[in-house]
Amino acid sequence: MAKIIGAVTTSHIPAIGMAMDNKLEQTPYWKPFFDAYPPVRAWLNEKKPDVVVIFYNDHGLEFFLDRKPTFAIGTAAQYLNADEGWGINTIPPVTGETELSWHIATDLVENEFDITICQEMRVDHGLTVPLSLMWPGHAYGHVKVIPVCINCERYPMPTPARCFKLGQAIGRAIESFDQDLNVVLFGTGGLSHQLDGERAGFINREFDIDCMNKIVTAPEELTKLSNYDLMEIGGAQGVELNMWLAMRGALTGNITELHRNYHAPISNTGAGLLLLEHEH
């Protein structure tokens, strides 16, 4: 049977990709951020997961304001990146996983999640930056990826509680799959940040640290928040915590925190990193 062996939370800020492209990782501005990633990379290289399920949000590359599914899952054999207009270089194709992704999609629909199933989709920095962070030099081709896209841009957006329930359903689906696969989950985005408006540059460090603690020990407490709460406490883009909650919902067994880092500001964002080991 497939098993979930762990999870990672990480920022997906476009500027991270630009910093890596321009070899800025050890400059004073970026060093405290990038120095946190080698332990996570080492764990991934040791565990050698077969599949990574990435919870992310699309920022207009595949799903713009004219069509924005609440939840979408990719079932393709390959995913392409494209120029998003942020100045990030496009990356080589991402390898998809078709059998497990179709199993998850089918299971979700049978369990009353009306998810958009995408046999073709372009993936933006929400997915590509985490992959590049974990496997620098575009060394991610050996890992099969299942993208799970959550609407965090356009009202109405799914609630934190609903995203957590989506993760729970995906976790059950993965662990009912009849092939021996080791699966790692990525919860991407966040934490607190607001990129425009009167509160542009807003960061709530106390809230971010509290979220990191509760993701590990008491995720249900975070599901009591509304999206309006997240925007008020964590900035307009603070709703990206919903990707972390979906990831956490899929972890049904015992959690061990192996590594964490928090650094702010990075590109006007509070950037949190967690490495969680999962076992039944």
Total count of domains: 1
- Can you give the mean pLDDT? 94
What are the segments in which pLDDT stays under 50 over at least 5 consecutive residues? Answer: none
Summarize the amount of helix as a percent range: 25-40%
Radius of gyration: 17 Å
Question: Beta-sheet strand percentage?
Answer: 15-25%
Give the CATH topology. Answer: Protocatechuate 4,5-dioxygenase, Chain B
The count of β-strands is: 10
Task: Specify the biggest β-sheet.
Answer: 8 strands, mixed
Query: What is the CATH homology-level superfamily?
Result: LigB-like
Notes on the protein architecture:
One of its GO terms (molecular function) is protocatechuate 4,5-dioxygenase activity. This is Protocatechuate 4,5-dioxygenase beta chain. It holds the Pfam family LigB. The chain is an alpha/beta fold and 280 residues long. The protein has one domain (3-279): LigB-like (Protocatechuate 4,5-dioxygenase, Chain B, 3-Layer(aba) Sandwich). 34% of the residues lie in helices and 21% in strands. It has 10 helices and 10 strands. The strands form 2 sheets. It has an 8-stranded mixed sheet with strand order 6-3-7-2-8-1-10-9, with helices on both faces. Strands 4-5 form a two-stranded antiparallel ribbon. Helix 1 packs across helix 5 (125-134), helix 4 crosses helix 6 (160-175) and helix 6 runs parallel beside helix 10 (241-249). The mean pLDDT is 94.
